[in-house]
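U., I forgot to send this yesterday:
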Amino acid sequence: MLGIGGWIVTLLTISMLAIAVLMMISTLLRHLRSFQMALPEEKDTQA
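Result:
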């Protein structure tokens, strides 16, 4: 069993990983959005 310190470290690590993943996803979505805007909208199969 983990102590209180172990639980705090685990929660901090999980929260840091979650924040990093969210930042990566937001930047990827921003790049994809700008890339799709740069492309001419001819074939829009994914509606």
